[in-house]
Amino acid sequence: MSFARADVLLVDRITEELKRLERQEELAEEALIAQQKKHAELLARQQQERDEALARLMRLRKLRRMLRERGVEMVNRGMNADEMEEADRREEEERQAELARVQQEEAQLLREVQSMSGVGVPDFPSFDLSFLTSGESSGGIHSGQSGSS
């Protein structure tokens, strides 16, 4: 074997080893990416579980607090649960009636304001912006009234 032939064989071996290492590196990188994705999914799942547990805890605390307040109110009012429900129902009906009354008043005020449109409203000058679209400038301010000022 000649010296040049030995160099070619050495270069071929080195090239094959480089290709083999590149394939292994690609496989290792793919495995790492897959592991990172799996880890991210696990973290997301755990975060969701923590969020759900926290929401449940907050809901239970709120229910406990409401029950305590409700119990104190029942004792203070000298009522049982059925009487409290009836009182709550009456209070809700009163709130709804008050809301309807306020909405009617607002509607009446709105109608009154609309009927006054144009009465005593000053004529403010408006800007002539037609030059922006036509390319010409008529320049200026004119009153909102038709005809000459």
Integer count of domains: 2
DSSP summary, beta strand count: 2
Beta-strand fraction estimate: under 5%
Helix content: over 70%
The main β sheet shows up as: 2 strands, antiparallel
Q: Would you tell me the structural class of the helices and strands?
A: mainly alpha
Question: Which term fits the overall shape?
Answer: elongated
Query: Tally the helices: what do you get?
Result: 3
Low-confidence stretches: 137-149
* Topology pattern, helix = H, strand = E: HHEHE
Strand order of the largest sheet: 1-2
Distance between the termini: 111 Å
Radius of gyration: 41 Å
Q: Give the rounded overall mean pLDDT.
A: 83
Structure description:
The structure is a single chain. With 149 residues, this protein is mainly α. The protein has two domains: 1-78; 80-110. The chain is built from three helices and two strands; from the N terminus they run ααβαβ. Strands 1-2 form a two-stranded antiparallel sheet. The longest helix has 75 residues, at 3-77. Mean pLDDT is 83; it is low at 137-149.
Task: Quickly describe the structure.
This protein is mostly helical. 77% of the residues lie in helices and 4% in strands. The protein has helices at 3-77, 81-115, 131-134, and strands at 126-128, 140-142.
